[in-house]
Design a protein that fits this description.
Blueprint lengths: L1 H8 L2 H28 L6 H20 L15 H16 L3 E3 L2 E3 L1 H18 L3 H24 L6 E10 L3 H10 L3 E9 L7 E10 L3 H9 L4 E6 L7
Antiparallel strand pairs: 1-2, 3-5, 3-6, 4-5
Helix pairs in contact: 2-3, 2-5, 2-6, 3-4, 3-5, 4-5, 5-6
């Protein structure tokens, strides 16, 4: 009991309450960030972001208060920023785990950035920068919720990739390629093959197109060409 009263006399109970409040704030704010990712069904959701935010805040609190008993004025000096720098370096491994490439498209960058942001958010809470933590949480939701709506109103500049299965008769391949080029599509790959043994006059062309227009523009234009039997958009799991 003597140790407890000593802590009270030194005022550390009050400091402990403040530290707990900062940790709880990190828990709440990082949970909000994680909930947004969870609702969008991302690989790193509520649990991951909450743990990252709380852990970062805890590291900051340990760095600030965990070595008070060994400090000696003029002899032992503490640099709290050293632990913070290591948190910034270490969180990159967690973010890197959610980035992957699928069908020539890099995915997970936004979620990785969100994890990195959550670590910074937890560090701000642990560092006592409450107003800054609240403001950046609001900025997070502006970016995640309002920016996608804004981007939908802007002219689209992102290229789309699609695979089309084109069945045709006769010498129509050249007309197909010219049509796609005039629509602004570039061709990534092109393969030919007979549809089946009973349809020797029908040829199937599998073409991967890339462009700013949707695949439906190409399908509509190709279907109007003479000699075209059918045009289908291949599902994504059928692509190479």
């Amino acid at each position: 009991m003597t140790g407890f009263f000593d802590l009270t006399a030194r005022g550390l109970i009050g400091e402990g309450r403040l530290q707990l409040e900062e940790l709880v704030l990190a828990f709440i704010l990082s949970s909000l960030v994680g909930l947004e990712r969870e609702l969008r069904q991302k690989s790193a959701g509520l649990r991951t972001h909450t743990l990252v935010g709380v852990s970062a805040a805890l590291f900051m609190l340990i760095s600030k208060y965990g070595f008070m008993d060994i400090l000696v004025p003029g002899r032992v000096v503490l640099d709290p920023s050293r632990v913070a720098a290591q948190v910034v370096s270490g969180i990159g491994f967690v973010g890197g785990g959610v980035i992957f490439m699928r069908r020539d498209v890099v995915r997970g960058l936004t979620t990785a950035a969100s994890i990195w942001f959550t670590a910074a958010l937890g560090m701000a809470c642990g560092g006592g920068l409450i107003l800054l933590a609240l403001a950046t949480t609001g900025a997070h939701f502006i970016v995640m919720v309002l920016y996608p709506r804004l981007l939908k109103r802007l002219p689209n500049t992102r290229e789309r990739i699609a695979d089309l299965s084109i069945q045709y008769q006769g010498d129509t391949a050249k007309a197909v390629l010219i049509c796609l080029t005039e629509l602004g599509f570039s061709l990534d790959s092109l393969t030919f093959g007979n549809t089946d043994a009973s349809s020797r006059n029908t040829t199937t062309m599998i073409v991967r197109i890339r462009g700013k227009r949707t695949a439906s523009h190409g399908i509509t234009a190709l279907a109007a060409l003479p000699g075209i039997q059918a045009v289908h958009l291949l599902p994504s799991n059928k692509r190479g």
